[in-house]
Amino acid sequence: MSDANISLKLFSPDSLLTQDFSNGYEAIAERYMAVRSRSGRALVQNWAETLPQGGSIIDIGAGNGQPITSALIEAGLQVSALDASPKMVAAFQAYFPDIRIACEAAEDSSFFNDTYDAALAVGLIFLLSKNKQRHLIQNVANALKEGGKFLFSSPYQICDWEDSLTGEGSRSLGREEYHRILKQSGLSLISESEDEGGTHYFEAEKIRHLMA
């Protein structure tokens, strides 16, 4: 495992006892990796084709990289990845030893100090609290280049539910609230879509500033 390609964010022992930065996925990582379907891969592949050739992208909540990150790599994009589960990150590194990945909480990652042509968050944002969702979207907006694209998955309805694998709470803020947060963050909602499994996606673009 190359030190140049992995970043481990250190937390104090006390914080690790009281907070799971993976939102429950570290405890069920093996099960998740065993049951994760290929749903969403085709949609992401098609979206990746609209991005600049060889462009940079941050995959937020990448898990073990299957099946989504692999689609980005095959599209020729320069991928940086995040996941808060050490087990997921280890599996990711086994698949993709040359891809830069950080084991950090997505909403508080140092990777957002860099800039990207695009950002992707599949199966993640609704795991976060409303405030953390808003914070993450703002971080993405700050890190995107002008005209950069952001694709994320979440139900279009306002709803709360229990994650079937972790038992932890999930929440969608709904179409209108996501539209509002995106706009406040300097992003414009440009399309919505669903994959073959019925997962809903929002696509946003960083607003370009016209030169005077």
UniProtKB/TrEMBL annotation:
One of its GO terms (biological process) is methylation. Residues 57-148 form the Methyltransferase domain. Gene3D superfamilies: Vaccinia Virus protein VP39 (3.40.50.150). InterPro entries: Methyltransf_25 (IPR041698), SAM-dependent_MTases_sf (IPR029063). Keywords: Methyltransferase, Transferase. It comes from the Bacteria. Transmembrane segments: none annotated. GO terms for molecular function: methyltransferase activity. This is Methyltransferase. It comes from Litorimonas cladophorae. The lineage of its organism: Bacteria, Pseudomonadati, Pseudomonadota, Alphaproteobacteria, Maricaulales.
